[in-house]
Design goal:
Strand content: 5-15%
Strand order of the largest sheet: 1-2-3-4
Distance between the termini: 108 Å
Structural class: alpha+beta
Number of strands: 4
Radius of gyration: 41 Å
Shape: elongated
Helix content: 55-70%
């Protein structure tokens, strides 16, 4: 490092010193940049890290929500294509039944609706589905043989004529 004596021409000595370093005082500038770097680093560690983690968490939540939304849209589109495909094949009477089903039971899946429109009967269907298919029963018999309430719903002019179920109104058998 160069030193100089303080003289009357100290301004000239300083300018000579600066000129000897190609017009820059590199150690002064290096120190200045080092301090700025340290301050920025401290600020990022102290303040920014938790905010950055929050940002990442929000971004990942958004991506999960976005993927769930896209999956739901995909499933809905598939269901709509099934609905539309089947609607075009239905008779006028079945189209009216379909409108009635959708209005009265919006939570029934397209597969259940298709089975009902095809007049299918299955174990596990609800009494509401049987009632929609056959109308109100002619006779209802409630019995309790120690295992809880058991129901028998019968229609006089239909085959199968009787459906059996328990207190949760799910069909367990029919004849």
């Amino acid at each position: 490092m160069k030193t100089f004596k303080a003289t009357r021409n100290s301004n000239q000595n300083v300018s000579n010193y600066i000129n000897s370093n190609n017009g820059t005082n590199s150690s002064y500038f290096d120190f200045k940049f080092f301090l700025i770097f340290i301050l920025i680093t401290i600020c990022m560690i102290g303040c920014g890290e938790s905010e950055y983690q929050k940002y990442l968490a929000i971004k990942s939540d958004d991506s999960i929500r976005r993927s769930e939304y896209l999956h739901k849209k995909y499933v809905d589109a598939q269901l709509d294509s099934i609905r539309i495909e089947n609607e075009n094949k239905l008779s006028k009477k079945d189209q009216l039944r379909l409108i009635k089903i959708r209005k009265e039971h919006p939570n029934w899946s397209p597969s259940i609706i298709n089975r009902l429109l095809n007049n299918e009967i299955w174990i596990g269907m609800s009494f509401e589905m049987v009632k929609f298919k056959n109308g109100k029963p002619d006779h209802v018999t409630l019995s309790n043989y120690g295992k809880g309430n058991q129901y028998q719903w019968c229609w006089n002019n239909l085959i199968p004529s009787c459906f059996y179920g328990n207190s949760n109104f799910i069909i367990t058998s029919y004849n």
